[in-house]
Write a structure and sequence with these properties.
The protein is mainly alpha-helical. It is 67% helix and 2% strand. It has one domain.
């Protein structure tokens, strides 16, 4: 399972070119996904997949299977929406400077501070007498140097730089995707089928070749091998949708996608249930082998991308449908959501460390961890953003 992990794609959305009005639907979808990232990390210790606490609850397995199957791909899609307009309005050197400031600098700082602080909580469980300075030095010199959820930030920077090169070569490169987006105003199923087909081609062969658990790793630069092309596909499809005519395409609040939100929610149930069927087959029939057969991986991969594409449509449809509502509970934290993504991981892991020895039900521990992770990461981000110039980064 992916450890992010991990959200949030908030960096690119915050960096969108200034417009006369904000797109409330996309702002709220991005903030919602940030909270999903925090929920994901709050419940993982209490699942079968990531069972690092004495207690667990099957309901959290239901949550983690769903979140792991879609939320990072959707973050890349949302990030891609703003790339082509940004490239059209900025000189190459300005775009590069902004991306390095918005993504490169936070990644570098987090890799040397936030991530070691987070994983020190795990190290203390395995080696209670290790000091932080010794742990930090070993992490950055010998390794392993895990990236936690910030792998998303460096990979997003890589996609942005790739998009910059492609835009200079051909500004009309994503026009075919944009035409399909406009067709999706009346026929969102066409967009769904495009997303499903491209993501299946990008993901299933890589899954068969690398398997589900292999990661590319070089210092703090890591990414799940089987999902790199999947994330790239979502990012560049997002770039095509956002290149032009957003309000007349599949993401229009007046389009058919927004009017069929409940239908898309129902459409997620079939592939999601099939993912559980595949898990039952692996454990109950195949005996949970260390290496799954190719037919199994291909089937699981197809249901994963089908669920991911369907739930992306469902979430966007929901927020587009209620775009005109005057206020949302998500609105107050919109400006802080990127910072919350960056700083939440050590908060979540240290809360789990302190809760470990308490004899509490898993749902209570996870609830405490989730609520406090939101509150503390939001408060920390708000404080950091008061530093002069910090809002250009956070």
């Amino acid at each position: 399972m992916t450890t992010i992990p991990h959200s949030v794609a908030a960096a690119e959305i915050h960096a969108a070119p200034k417009a006369k009005t904000r797109n409330l639907a996309l702002d709220r979808a991005r903030t919602f996904l940030t909270l999903v990232v925090l929920l994901h990390h709050a419940v993982i210790p209490y699942t079968h997949f990531g069972h690092t606490d004495p207690t667990s609850w099957i309901g959290f397995d239901v949550v983690v299977l769903a979140t792991d199957s879609f939320f990072m791909a959707m973050f890349f899609f949302l990030s891609g929406l703003f790339v082509w307009p940004g490239l059209a309005h900025k000189a190459p050197q300005v775009f590069l400077r902004d991306r390095l400031l918005r993504l490169g600098l936070p990644f570098a700082i987090a890799a040397f501070t936030i991530i070691p602080i987070a994983y020190y909580a795990i190290a203390l469980r395995q080696q209670p007498d290790v000091g932080f300075s010794a742990f930090w030095w070993k992490t950055v010199t010998v390794g392993p140097w895990p990236s936690g959820p910030i792998w998303f930030v460096w990979l997003l920077l890589a996609f942005d730089l790739t998009a910059s090169v492609l835009y200079r070569l051909s500004p009309t490169l994503v026009d075919p995707i944009n035409r399909l987006s406009r067709r999706g105003f009346d026929q969102p199923t066409v967009f769904f089928l495009l997303l499903l087909a491209v993501s299946a081609v990008a993901y299933i062969p890589a899954l068969l070749y690398f398997g589900p658990n292999h990661w590319f790793e070089f210092g703090p630069f890591s990414v799940q091998a089987s999902r790199v092309l999947l994330y790239a596909a979502y990012f560049f499809i997002g770039a095509g949708v956002g290149a032009a005519n957003v309000e007349r395409g599949v993401l229009s609040a007046d389009g058919r996608l927004a009017r069929s939100s409940w239908g898309w929610i129902a459409a997620t149930l079939i592939p999601y249930c099939m993912l559980w069927v595949m898990i039952y087959i692996k454990r109950g029939i195949l005996g949970n082998p260390p290496v799954q057969p190719q037919w199994y991986l291909a089937s699981y991969g197809f249901f994963l991308v089908a669920f991911s594409a369907a739930i992306l449509c469902a979430i966007l449809a929901f927020f587009l449908r209620f775009k005109q509502s005057g206020w949302s509970v998500l609105d107050p934290m919109q400006g802080d959501s990127y910072g919350m993504f960056l700083v939440h991981y050590p908060i979540a892991l240290w809360l789990q460390y302190w809760l470990f020895d308490y004899d509490l039900p898993a749902i209570v521990k996870a609830g405490i961890g989730f609520v406090l992770t939101i509150a503390l990461s939001w408060a920390l981000t708000a404080a950091l953003r008061k530093i002069p110039g910090a809002t250009r980064v956070l």
